[in-house]
Design a protein that fits this description.
Layout lengths: L7 H10 L1 H20 L4 H5 L3 H14 L6 H30 L4 H6 L3 H32 L5 H39 L1
Helix pairs in contact: 2-5, 4-5, 4-8, 5-7, 5-8, 7-8
Length: 190
């Protein structure tokens, strides 16, 4: 005995077949581009360390509000990858600038340790990170709360982005500095 989907259910199953691969390929491409940009393969891991919390937050929000994971919500999760990656880039880029030298001659000659560098990056970059996250959050909130014609199709996208942003924003400001410190320690051991 065999079973298979037919009609609309088959089209739906076929459309979801490659979405996981699409998400994985997009993360690998982002990793490779960041590796080329930083000429390093450790810092892209630090930058991408916030992605699991964003995905978990998006899926948890969809689960809490009993919204299915469809094509729109999956597009929202892919959108989250870009927004969360940007937050990581802001922190890591500034910490690298502090650690490896900047316009300040003392820092250029002596350099500073990873922990003070990422701490300073968190203090200086907190406001820009919050501003861009709030802009994205407020921009997608009407989609998540939307009513009217066709809103049931777009609502999963908004909920995925809003839930992922809120959850990852809380964790990223704690998680990325910890991963950065450990990765710098790992680099010094190599």
């Amino acid at each position: 005995m065999t079973t298979s989907f037919q009609g609309s259910a088959q089209v739906f199953a076929d459309s979801f077949k490659d979405l996981g691969l699409l998400l994985l390929v997009s993360i690998v491409v982002i990793y490779l581009i960041l590796g080329i940009l930083y000429e390093d393969f450790i810092h892209p891991i630090t930058i991408l360390s916030g992605l699991p919390s964003a995905g978990f937050g998006a899926l948890l929000t969809l689960l809490i509000f009993n919204v299915e994971l469809n094509l729109y919500s999956f597009i929202g999760i892919i959108l989250l990858v870009g927004i969360v990656k940007k937050n990581g880039i802001m922190l890591v880029d500034f910490a690298i600038l502090l650690q490896r030298g900047s316009a300040n001659e003392r820092q250029r000659n002596e350099g500073i340790l990873p922990l003070p560098a990422i701490y300073e990056a968190c203090l200086v970059r907190f406001r820009p990170i919050m501003m861009t996250t709030m802009a994205a959050l407020i921009g997608t909130l009407p989609i998540a709360l939307g009513t009217g014609t066709g809103s049931e199709a777009r609502r999963p996208l908004g909920m995925a982005v809003v839930g992922g942003l809120v959850f990852s924003q809380i964790l990223t400001l704690y998680l990325t500095p910890v991963v950065y410190t450990y990765m710098e320690g790992f680099r010094s051991k190599l």
